[in-house]
Amino acid sequence: MMTILLADDEPSLLELGQVFLERTGDLKVITALGAEEAMEILRTTKIDGIISDYQMPGMNGIAFLQKVRIRYPEMPFMMYTGKGQEDVVISALRNGCDYYLPKGDDPKAEFAELALQVRRMVKNKNLERDLNESEERYRLIIENFTGIILQRRADNRIIYANGAVERITGYPAEMFMSGDFSWDTIVHPDDLPILSQAVEDARADPSVVSVSEYRIITREGDVHWVQESCNYVRKKSGKIASVHGTLYDITDRKQMEEQLIAQRDLGLSLAAARSLDDAVSLCLDTASRVAEMGFGALYLEDAHTESYVLSCATGFSDAFLSSVHVIGKDAPLARRVAAGEYIYARYSDLPDMLGFTPEKERVQVILIIPIIYNNASIGFILLGSNYTDIIPDSSLMSLEVIAYQVGNAIARIWVEEMLAQAEVGSGFFKSTPVE
Question: What does the buried/exposed string (b/e) look like for 45-61 if buried means 16 or more CB atoms within 10 Å of the residue's CB?
Fold first, then answer.
């Protein structure tokens, strides 16, 4: 039921209007003797629409309409006026009146028309409001959608693309929908069979909804992992006409999975390692892969010389490694490592951290990860890269775990080597004379 506010300065018209309007059964009418009283009712009562006279003392219908539009901009508003007041009608429409009806000599017929028009007015306003709300919800969904809504033909030519297209792929959606763009042009060549297999599965089973994970190559040349969920639209013949799907970037998730696998594999390998050389090589290789940095060196503490000594390396030139083979504990870098500090800096900052200028190396950034055992630094991993991208927090957390694994493994192997030396020195392994 619609609740209508009827405003007029004539009590008899209010009473008559209420009777005629409510006679339809779907309208409830609240009356107001003038615009001021109507404004008070609006403050306390939910109203679906307003019918107002124009000629009222104190505040006429136009002034009332203006106040309503300021406070209740979407409120349906109808005005009825005396005949020959075309200027009032024009002013009302300019101020946002939805409908108007001229007064005549037949109140019964006029109120019947008012009832008809007020239903139509409120219905149209509600439809307009619902449409605007629906469009706003759709806009917010699209703007905040982190994936891509993708529609493509069976031959992978793109029909429609929306959402985070450019953020994920580097290509604007308009380029995708140009008619000449094929989705498989950005799919990693090694993963093209995954798309083909999904289509083959759909041909074999019409009810299938495929979920695939594969790599794409962005416009910038970066490799991203994506997950795509697809439905298949078919022609009457049963052939696949188009593929409708949603696609999300899962690169971070994939990286975390790979890092967890790397940590697990490293832990298993270190448990089986019996030599220090094997352990540090395993650790350096895993750290380089997790950080995606192609240059690496691992240093261990030498308590006798009060320094950190290079234990193993990869990627760096021999000249560079020779110049930084030993790093004294009085160097700024060593002091920061001893304090357990992670360092991510430009390669040009390295001389200040070392206290001397090493041989030139072809890297732009360096990452230094302390190796901690029993709350003390026993070494560090130095990684280098030509790329200056910020390292994700997940990778740094994984590197921290790897450094912890390194510390425990090195300490265990040191203890095992000392015990073995002590046993040899005690004569435990000496041959027993044959009698």
Answer: eebbbbbbbbebeebbb
Instruction: Give the pLDDT confidence score for residue 434 in this predicted structure.
Output: 44
DSSP string of 222-279, one letter each residue: -EEEEEEEEEEEE-TTS-EEEEEEEEEE-HHHHHHHHHHHHHHHHHHHHHH--SHHHH
Distance of alpha carbon 368 from alpha carbon 379, whole angstroms: 10
Give all strands of the β-sheet with 326-328 in edge-to-edge order.
326-328, 307-314, 295-302, 376-385, 365-373, 343-346
Which residues, in sequence order, are bridge partners of residue 46? none
Tokens of 305: 């010389």
Under the banding of pLDDT at 50, 70 and 90, the label for residue 429 is very low
Q: Is 288 exposed, middle or buried (0-12, 13-18, 19+ CB in 10 A)?
A: buried
Choose between 392 and 385: higher pLDDT: 385
Closest CA to 379 of 299, 287, 297, 279: 299
Burial 294-305 (b: 16+ CB within 10 A, else e): bbbbbbbbeeee
User: CA–CA separation, 402 vs 337, rounded Å?
Assistant: 16
